[in-house]
Amino acid sequence: MHGKVSADQIDNTNQNQNNAQTATTNTEGSTNSASNDNGDSKAATLASDNPLTTVQGNQNTTATVNNQTQTAQNTTTTTEETKQQPSYDTNDHGNYAWMDSVKLNDNGQVQVSGWHATNDSADKPYHFIIAYDNTTKSEIGRVQVTNPATRNDVQQAHNVYSADKSGFNVTFNINPDVLANADSISFISRYSASAFGNSNYTDFWYAPITFDKRNHASLDSVVVKDGQLQVAGWNATNQAANKKYHTIIVYDRTDNKVVGSQIVENVARPDVAKAYPNVVNADKSGFVASFDLSQLNLNHQLQIISRYGTNAAGNGTNVDYYFTPITNGNYTNQGNLDSFNISDGQHLTVAGWHADDISKLENNHFLILFDNTTNKQVAVVKANQISRPDVANVYKSVATAGQSGFNVSFDLSNLNLVSGHSYSVVSRYSTSGDDNGNGGQYTDYWFTPITLNQQDYSLDKVNMTNDGLHVAGWMASDYSMGRENAYIIVLNDGKEIGRQKVTLTNRSDVAGARGKIFDSAKSGFDTTINFDPALATGNLQILMRFSSDAYGNRDYADQYSQSYASNAGHFDTVQVSDSGIYVSGWHASNQTVNKPYQYLIFLDANTGQELYRQRVLDINNSRSDIAEAYPTIINADKSGYKLGLNIPSQLDHHTVKIIHRITDDINGNGNYVDTYSDPVSIHNNRWAWPFPSTGQGSFMGAQLFGVNPGGEFRQNGFHDGLDFGAYDHPGSQVHAIHSGTIVGVGYTAGLDWYVLEDTGEYLIVYQEAFSNRGNINVVPGQKIEVGDVIGNRDTSHVHIGITREHNFNRALAKSFTNDGTWLNPLEIIRNGLNG
Fold this sequence. Notes:
This protein has nine helices and 56 strands. With 835 residues, the chain is mainly β. Strands 48, 50, 51, 52, 53, 55 and 56 form a seven-stranded antiparallel β-sheet that branches.
């Protein structure tokens, strides 16, 4: 209980005021009253959440003396009265008081202290403090103040009768049942002329004290020890004032039944009394209880209940406090295996975390290695908890998440791990500290299984030498368990051409990156596999082998590298100019030994027919980039070449493929090794004459484009194309004058059979040359190149027209109109050749 009022009760009126005062005075924080009744008209004010608190209000009451209403009157002071004027201010009609404190002592008694000063007490020598139950509207206790406390501070603030002796400090023995049931209590300070305080009195009603009916408790600890669930805490409430039996109950909310119950002797808790001074027996509210763990299922939702009751069996009137369940039956059970490391070949080190709501009770932590393949435990170690604030931040509701980490090692010397088997790491929290904890209640987290079938390698350096292939890198495999012999084997198109046994060396970098692979810390090698480089004629592979056989021929586990070319090349530059071609590149091959000659050979890309060849003299140029890219090819660092030549007529207007050949024959034949270029267009996107052997040739006026002498017979005298006659341009094969796509083959009167070619910019028409479809070699949709044969001319001439109008029907409609639809083929072909 707490009895300090909430407003200032020091009067601020002028103490020397001589004017008449009214008996009814409204002073700050004070109440003037004189009454013979029991105060039934007083209204209790409840306005605080504190356990037992006063709320001070300003009350205006009429002071009564001898049951008559007193009104302030102006009186005439006689000379005699002036001579006998007392030392206090008789004109002060205030009723002043303050409640300093209301609290319960260690014996459950209510202690009240404060002061009350008023001139109305001058003829009232008896001072009482009365406790009044506002719920039942009845007095519940009265104590006479026989030893008033000196209060000079009050005298200084209020110079009224006996203010310096206005203090009090009294104790009430109030029935606990009353305290348990009252909503609020008012304390009254009464000065009375009656020895029993029941008549001729002046009262001050302090603000009501709100009774603390709350139920306060804390479960301080819940632990499992020696097969017992031990709980400790406290429970303090005024509702228990008349209930002498204290029982601690374990309730299984999952099965909806009590699974443990124990009457306890309360334990001293002065800390609780200090925090809740107004709660009866708060100083003796502690408890400790133990329950047989075998009767409890920690995987169920268990709740501790503190009960104060009127009988031992709990069948009377009870007040219960339900603590938050100590287990929730649907607990968070989360974990992560951060690392699984067997890199040193001697230990398995595992690290991670396991956060589990129930671990505060199952507080023995084990890490178990379980062979899933054979379905049996392999090893177990006890783990110490490690701080993991990152886990606590994610799983804020798990009390033990902050200490959920682990880092343990298993000794592999006696474990006999088997490659290919699946293993699980199991984190177990158990109530038992023996063996692997399976003798108690436990909760497991099975981390994702790891199968010992991992292997990896890296070839840090590979280069062909005159003595064979030099190889450096590392190789690691879970299958190396029991296979101590390591070999490096070189394959050529899948066939072995050399092998070398190696002693593996320390590679801490590999251990750090591939810790899950057995013995990866000892995985390094640097060796040369001896063989004649000329044996490397195909694709090379490096095979890394662990074998139980000293010669590496049986019981082995292999890893294969990528394929490495033994012959490679690239045409870096192929530049075609108006008159020449420049080629540069590189060609590296293990077959170059005793092959001093190099050639460029040009093939027709369509037919594969050789068109031209020329020996390359600028060879063996330095190419360090090729040596780095193709380390398995000998002398790749001297594989560059270049050649420039004038374009021979055999190549002009052809798409070709170029062969670079290294050979032992001065003429470019014999024993050789080749590389091929992509197709190369030689003037294939330029204009050409339809009869290459004649070229431009000569034309008569009637053959020329436009309006010319000899062409008067045509409508408007206009000729929309150029005629190549059989006499002036002999030959039967009509060649394409530009590269493009055949978009039409057809027949129409006056044109005979015709072919339409679209170059993207122009539409070219080949007409009047073919008497039947069989003379035409192309089909719609076919892509052609300049110089390709369109068909065989079997008439007197071929008419070639060129237009930017890609719709042939619209262009044909303008055949005799010189409006720019049709263009001069002679100028286009000739200028194209010169451009």
